[in-house]
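Narrative progress, year one. The postdoctoral researcher (J.K.) led the effort to move from monomer predictions toward full complexes, under supervision of the PI. The following entry was the first complex the group processed end to end, covering 229 residues in total.
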Amino acid sequence: GENVEQHPSTLSVQEGDSAVIKCTYSDSASNYFPWYKQELGKRPQLIIDIRSNVGEKKDQRIAVTLNKTAKHFSLHITETQPEDSAVYFCAASSNTGANNLFFGTGTRLTVIP
Amino acid sequence: GAGVSQSPSNKVTEKGKDVELRCDPISGHTALYWYRQSLGQGLEFLIYFQGNSAPDKSGLPSDRFSAERTGGSVSTLTIQRTQQEDSAVYLCASSANFRVTGNTIYFGEGSWLTVV
């Protein structure tokens, strides 16, 4: 099955700086890569996703890049704000077989005001 | 309902007792997932229901864990003879069409289980 690894496990940045979280996956058939944000005590919520037919996607201060050859994808948050502080999870899914979604272990991002 | 609904939101049970956790997915969603999240940890896959097909049970940690989905809608996760290590948040999620990759998965608020 799919194995998703995520780094770093914790990340602290100054407000206004950029944050980058990286994930790798093992199943070359994976073709959908969402990112979820989980605030303390809340449910995970989708913030951005990318499909394997594109290499980059942006939504305001958030961008995701995908390198299919290397089987890794990254989340980039620019001009970080305190409300960006949360745990971020990457995930991977393929449409071969079960369409299951496999998550990374999470990155706890702290934005220091 | 508007979102994925889970009950109970909090459950404290004695070691050795059985518990049932309920998930009511978004209406019309054919895919339903259960995940477990221990304090400060990641999302551990438990089981995945895909329409009327056999569920993917590969994530269930032991035979004390089971789940069913009746009528393609509501799902119940049952933990028998609970142990302290079962204490965690149990998150249910659903998505619109298991046949199509890339459908957004929506999570419920979770059921916080504490085994004492």
